[in-house]
Each structure stands twice: as structure tokens, then as C-alpha cells.
């Protein structure tokens, strides 16, 4: 079975500052990794995903994440945030075979301050 | 190409009534997943369906909940005799045919169920 831990439930950061949202996972099998963003009262939008290959993954809106197999982490980063980045961010994993259902973390609420 | 459609967006039911949630996957997608998001929590997997087949329902409550994805028409998540604890946002996601490699799930806007 897999599990995903997002230790930070809330992250306040000033506009134009860098941010890192942490994600750690546990799994006995190979996994794919995803970051999704959820704006208030909306669905989830894919930011980026890691399936294989380069461990540094670039996504939309200037976000990137690095897969670290030894530390079982997939932290999300952005060098300079905007007010519009205020949202809930979810890390998820799925098995590389089988049903591919997602296991989500509990989310990190990013609040960008002016 | 329209995204994943869910309706209704908001649904209010009284205790004991039935709730019926609909999901139309993206065109060309034959895999549908349902997730539930309780207030202040992450999304929890409920069920995975392909056309006319339930593949994995390990996340579905044993009673009152059922799902289908008929040959024609949308996928339906049905909750019978709703209770206050069923109040949540229910998200549907679809994925194209998986040919040996996982692909991204595309999420709908969700149905927010409130049980009075």
C-alpha cells in the first residue's frame, strides 16, 4: 500500500518570494508522482507529473519538482510566487501498474501575501 | 475538447433521500475514477470503472453507495438514504485508454453534496 505525507498544512509566503511545498511518500512498489492545484470551489488541475526519466520535472505556471528516490520525496518549488498562486496543492502517487488509482496527501494551503 | 463534466455542481438533500451524481468523461476516455473530499481533507479514492465494468471499488463504503458506467451515457455515483456524514465534494476523473503506462487523470469541477 502507498501513503503520501504533506507535513505542512499551511504555508504563508510573501509575493515574489520562493516557496517549497513538501511531499513524502511511502510505497513498496514503483510509483508515479503528481502535483495538482485546487483553487477555491474548483476541481483539480495538473501542475506536473513524474513518470520516468529526468528527476527534475517542470510544470505549468513556473512550478517544478524534484523526484528523490532515496528520500522518497517529491517536493514542489517555485522561485517567485504571485498572489494568484494562492490555492490548495495536493501531492499524489499511483502505482505503475494495476488500477492506477491515486493516493493523495492531505494538501498544503499556500497563501501568498502582498 | 470539452473537459470532464459533472452535474449537478451543488446538490442539497435531506437525510434519508437519494443523491445521484453524474460524470461525463472527456471525449475518448474510457476510464472513470470517483474520489471523495471531506471538509479540510484530501481526496480519497472510491471506485474505478471502465465501460460496463467496476474494476476496483475498494474505497466505496459497503452500504448505500453504488456506481456504474454504462455503455452509453455518463457514469453515475448513487448514494441511497444519505446521512449528514455524506456531505462532501465528490470528484470524478477520467483517463484515456491505458496501454501499459499510466496516464494523467483529468478532474471534473466536482459535485458538492450537502445533507441537511
Q: Can you walk through the features of this model?
A:
The complex is a heterodimer of chains A (114) and B (116). Chain A is mainly beta. In chain A, 0% of the residues lie in helices and 53% in strands. In chain B, the strands form 2 sheets. In chain B, strands 2, 4, 5, 6, 9, 10 and 11 form a 7-stranded mixed sheet that branches. In chain B, strands 1-3-8-7 form a 4-stranded antiparallel sheet, with no helix packed on it.
* Beta-strand content bin of chain A: over 45%
Judged by helices, strands and strand pairing, the structural class of chain A is: mainly beta
How would you describe the shape of chain B?
Answer: globular
- What does the largest sheet of chain A look like? 6 strands, mixed
Gyration radius over CA of chain B: 14 Å
Question: What is the strand content of chain B?
Answer: over 45%
Order of helices and strands of chain B: EEEEEEEEEEE
Oligomer: heterodimer
Individual helix count of chain A: 0
Structural class of chain B: mainly beta
Number of strands of chain B: 11
Q: Uncertain spans of chain A, ≥5 residues at pLDDT below 50?
A: none
Q: What would the average pLDDT of chain A be, to the nearest integer?
A: 92
The general outline of chain A is globular
Figure out the total of helices of chain B. Answer: 0
The residue fraction in helices of chain B comes out at under 10%
* Largest sheet, strands/sense/barrel of chain B: 7 strands, mixed
- Count of extended strands of chain A: 12
Mean pLDDT score of chain B, rounded?
91
Question: Measured on Cα atoms, how large is the radius of gyration of chain A?
Answer: 14 Å
